[in-house]
């Protein structure tokens, strides 16, 4: 089949027709501009759900609220045709606050995967025959997490419990002398857990190294209902609805992450992350044939010229990073690799505690087969981190 055109909704990739769609970036604000790092990132000024152990880094008088949106420009090339698309969507929202001096909590909403595609091709059933594919949806997490410092502000543990929900719709329409319309629907709702640990080793009074690990157990029997709706139209229309799977045949993989971060207070951050997702053990419709293990490597950094000056440009947090990963999907016995480069900045607000974070990311999708589509993305993410003093007892004279 020859691809004629493709256009997306909240996601921009024909590859989201497979698996659970395109996996979302779980990092917030500053982390996105630094290549998506987060496992070893420990900061009192930002929320980091990639490692729930990081929540306890905040002080006991702070409240954090973070929300972000994303805009995306996409290019597609199948060797014969090219197309460009533009879209944008709400990304995440989260808040974080202390419970005691050593215990903090975070709650939020963040995406797990996106599905969005619409493309057509010539079918092999004769001249003028067409087959059209389209899909929408994705999976989302609502999480609540706790983190505790258990030893001298050096060792911290944390855990998230998430309610995962979402719907994914895949549609196929074949047009010959007749029209046959097939819709495959997946409805997901289940509980997911994430665990994290961070150890901070001081180097000097202002410098330190933080080592972080995170683990998410597999969801072995994802609570799912999937069914097909088939409509056949010639001189009449008939609709057939058949349950395919219910609470079986679907699962999500275990994932592991490790990161190390060097921090110099009010000056610089350097970080490196490695993560692995065991997708070869996951299932979709009772099969794991289209999955393979995914490994991602990310590097990033932040630099502040002078945090204590009145010159605004010197107080900006300049950020940059890169990441490289393989796909978790097997497509035509192959898949694709993904390379991303990002830059960004954190703009201090007048209170000098809150920040407006901007990141620009270029992503290139490199398929392992010439028969697959080449993709390029330019993403702009804008987020606001609201930092306010709470629980502060004012003294009256």
Structure description:
This protein has 2 helices and 18 strands. By secondary structure, the chain is mostly beta strands. A 14-stranded antiparallel barrel has the order 3-4-5-6-7-8-9-12-13-14-15-16-17-18. Strand 5 and strand 6 form a beta hairpin. The longest helix has 5 residues, at 29-33.
User: H/E series, N to C?
Assistant: EEHEEEEEEEEEEEEHEEEE
Assembly state of the chains shown: single chain
Number of E strands: 18
Q: Distance N terminus to C terminus?
A: 80 Å
Q: What kind of sheet is the major sheet? A: 14 strands, antiparallel, barrel
> What class would the helix/strand composition place it in?
mainly beta
Evaluate the radius of gyration: 23 Å
Percent of residues in helices comes to under 10%
Q: Please give the count of helices.
A: 2
The low-confidence runs, each spanning 5 or more residues with pLDDT under 50, are 1-9
Features:
mainly beta, single chain, 2 helices, 397 residues, globular, 2% helix
Quick structural gist:
Helices cover 2% and strands 60% of the residues.
Protein topology:
Elements: E1 3-6, E2 22-23, H1 29-33, E3 62-77, E4 82-98, E5 103-122, E6 130-151, E7 155-175, E8 179-202, E9 207-216, E10 224-233, E11 237-246, E12 255-264, E13 268-277, E14 294-303, H2 312-315, E15 317-326, E16 336-348, E17 355-367, E18 374-389
Antiparallel strand pairs: 1-5, 2-5, 3-4, 3-18, 4-5, 5-6, 6-7, 7-8, 8-9, 8-10, 9-12, 10-11, 12-13, 13-14, 14-15, 15-16, 16-17, 17-18
């Amino acid at each position: 089949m020859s691809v004629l055109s493709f256009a997306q909704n909240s996601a921009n990739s024909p590859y989201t027709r497979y698996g659970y769609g395109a996996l979302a970036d779980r990092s917030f604000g500053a982390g996105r501009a630094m290549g998506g790092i987060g496992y070893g990132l420990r900061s009192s000024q930002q929320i980091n759900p990639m490692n729930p152990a990081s929540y306890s880094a905040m002080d006991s008088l702070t409240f954090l609220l973070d929300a972000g949106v994303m805009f995306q420009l996409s290019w597609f090339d199948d060797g014969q045709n090219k197309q460009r698309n533009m879209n944008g969507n709400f990304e995440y929202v989260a808040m974080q606050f202390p419970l005691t001096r050593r215990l903090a909590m975070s709650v939020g909403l963040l995406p797990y995967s996106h599905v969005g595609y619409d493309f057509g091709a010539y079918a092999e059933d004769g001249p003028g025959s067409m087959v059209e594919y389209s899909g929408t949806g994705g999976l989302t997490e609502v999480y609540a997490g706790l983190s505790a410092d258990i030893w001298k502000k050096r060792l911290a543990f944390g855990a998230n419990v998430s309610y995962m929900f979402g719907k994914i719709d895949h549609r196929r329409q074949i047009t010959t002398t007749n029209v046959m319309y097939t819709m495959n629907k997946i409805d997901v709702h289940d509980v997911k857990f994430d665990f994290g640990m961070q150890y901070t080793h001081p180097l000097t009074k202002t410098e330190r190294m933080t080592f972080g690990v995170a683990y998410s157990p597999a969801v072995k029997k994802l609570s799912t209902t999937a069914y097909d709706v088939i409509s056949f139209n010639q001189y009449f229309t008939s609709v057939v609805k058949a349950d395919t799977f219910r609470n079986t045949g679907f699962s999500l993989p275990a994932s592991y992450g490790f990161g190390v971060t060097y921090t110099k207070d009010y000056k610089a951050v350097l970080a490196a992350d490695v993560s692995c997702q065991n997708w070869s053990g996951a299932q979709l419709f009772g099969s794991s044939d289209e999955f393979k293990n995914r490994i991602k490597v990310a590097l990033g950094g932040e630099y502040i010229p002078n945090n204590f000056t009145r010159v605004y440009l010197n107080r900006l947090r300049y950020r940059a990073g890169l990441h490289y990963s393989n796909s978790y999907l097997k497509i035509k016995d192959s898949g694709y690799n993904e390379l991303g480069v990002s830059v960004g900045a954190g703009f201090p607000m007048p209170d000098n505690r809150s920040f407006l974070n901007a990141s620009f990311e270029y992503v290139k999708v490199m398929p392992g087969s010439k028969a697959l589509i080449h993709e390029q993305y330019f993403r702009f993410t804008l987020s606001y981190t609201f930092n306010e003093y709470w629980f502060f007892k004012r003294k009256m004279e």
